[in-house]
Amino acid sequence: MRVNYVLGNWKLNNQRKDIDDWLEVFKHTAKAGVRVGVSPTLGYLDYMSGKCEGLMVGAQNVSEFDQGAFTGEVSAAMLSDLGVSFCLVGHSERRQFFQETNEKVADKVKGLLSHEIIPVICCGESQVEYETGQAKEVIGAQLSAVFSRLEVSQLSKVVVAYEPVWAIGTGLTATPEVAQEIHQFIRQFAGDFFGSVAAQSLSILYGGSVNEQSAAELFAQPDIDGGLVGGASLKPTSFMQIIEALS
Ligand SMILES: O=C(CO)COP(=O)(O)O
């Protein structure tokens, strides 16, 4: 049985008052096999930690370096010290605006694993790559940089999030069929590296305009193990409905 996740990515949103208001409304009853978490910005990780029973707190980024003269960075050891459970790596916004390469992503994954933080490895193609039929090739290149540096025993300790760039923040959710086809490809691709049994243990989340209307049908697909939710996770009631859709 794979673990299912619903993770919120708050991106560059939510200050203390917003977090208090969100937590006031958000109610969560733990369900077996389902993990729920949100990732505030770095400055609020400590503020959020331990505020809500059963809610994991995650980071949106981590340095590939452990320590030293790297102004403005935060290490995996520091995230661990703050009680962080998971960390996004290789989000398309970081790849696009902050030069996060496949190699950097792989370094970050290794660092997070050494501190027992779950790396959520984001991958996905751009609109042009989608339209020209290159999605699988792009995703394969993004993932092979990471997979080639993992041991088989580490596959169950990472999560992959498929986030087609054209679906992020656009309201254009991938259809359940399109998303399932890519998720199945990702699982097969993991199987080529680690064997099909290990690949069955890999949780693969879908992200890109997930909302309370689209969640249930997406989550019903056999290779979709939950969601990475941006905009809709800012509204606690929407986020709760999305969690409910995963059953
Ligand atoms: O980037 C995302 C999550 O990481 C998805 O964002 P939206 O749900 O706002 O499209």
Automatic annotation (TrEMBL):
The record ties this protein, via PROSITE patterns, to: TIM_1, TIM_2
Q: Which Gene3D superfamilies match?
A: Aldolase class I
Q: Where is the active site?
A: 91 (electrophile), 163 (proton acceptor)
| Keyword vocabulary terms for this entry | Cytoplasm, Gluconeogenesis, Glycolysis, Isomerase
Positions with a binding annotation for substrate = 9-11, 169, 209, 230-231
Q: Name one GO cellular component term.
A: cytosol
Q: Which GO terms describe its biological process?
A: gluconeogenesis; glyceraldehyde-3-phosphate biosynthetic process; glycerol catabolic process; glycolytic process
Instruction: State the family named in the UniProt similarity comment for this chain.
Output: Belongs to the triosephosphate isomerase family.
**NCBIfam families membership:** tim
Subunit and partners: Homodimer.
Q: What is this protein's name? A: Triosephosphate isomerase
Q: What is the lineage of its organism?
A: Bacteria, Pseudomonadati, Pseudomonadota, Gammaproteobacteria, Cellvibrionales
- Chain's gene name: tpiA
